[in-house]
Write a structure and sequence with these properties.
Blueprint (H helix, E strand, L loop, with lengths): L11 E5 L2 E4 L10 E3 L20 E3 L2 H8 L4 E3 L6 E2 L3 E5 L9 E9 L2 E8 L6 E4 L2 E8 L2 E7 L15 E8 L2 E8 L3 H9 L1 E3 L2
Parallel strand pairs: 3-10
Antiparallel strand pairs: 1-2, 4-7, 5-15, 6-8, 7-8, 8-9, 9-14, 11-12, 12-13, 13-14
Length: 199
């Protein structure tokens, strides 16, 4: 991940290169994440200007794929949402995996967004915090687990649309995470199921 930190289950989705990014900020930088465990620990983000930014930004998938060094999947269905920000390519922050790459892109409109995070380490590069398990689904022949920031104290019901959802799965040496905000579960599943390798 671009910042291997545990996130609170309310109000935040992902860790950015300059700190925590709120759901209303765009882009919300995320990266190849897994649910937090009781042993997860937060790692503070370095102050701005103290370290070199290891992340590169690209306007095309061709350039991002060349920088990542592995074949990328891109969505063929984004439910009317457009990508307004560069594609991010940075190192995987999992122990012993810094030579592997994580790639993040986001499509959004207002407070709605869909996001795709993929890496070539074959496992999660970080965790996304405490979220409620919402089920296991099949995505292109692989078992994918869905989580939601919902159903807890002070959080919205998991039955409403206004929640942040996460769907994560492994496919061989690739690890994928898709995110959504203010979208139904079926939309996030459709987004994930319509990912295709870039030609």
């Amino acid at each position: 991940m671009f910042g291997n930190s545990r996130l609170p289950a309310r109000g935040l989705l992902a860790v950015g290169l300059t700190g925590l990014i709120t759901l209303t900020a765009a882009p919300a930088f995320a990266s190849s994440a897994a649910p937090a465990t009781r042993h997860s620990t937060a790692r503070p983000t370095a102050p701005a200007g103290k370290t070199k930014d290891p992340t590169s930004r690209y306007n095309t998938w061709r350039k991002a794929q060349k920088a990542a060094g592995f074949r990328l999947r891109v969505p063929t269905r984004t439910y009317g949402l457009k990508r307004k920000h560069p594609i991010l390519v940075g190192p995987c922050d999992a122990a012993g995996q810094r030579r592997k790459k994580a790639v993040y892109a986001q499509w959004g409109s207002g407070k709605r967004f869909l996001a795709l995070d993929q890496n070539n380490s074959g496992r999660a590069c970080s965790n996304f915090g405490a979220a409620k398990p919402l089920g296991v689904f099949r995505v292109q022949g692989h078992k994918a687990r869905m989580y939601g920031f919902c159903g807890g104290h002070g959080l919205p019901s998991c039955k409403v649309r206004n929640v942040v959802l996460v769907l994560a799965w492994r496919a061989g040496h690739r690890y994928y995470v898709t995110y959504s905000s203010r979208e139904w579960r079926s939309t996030l599943l459709g987004f994930a199921r319509h990912l295709r390798f870039r030609r």
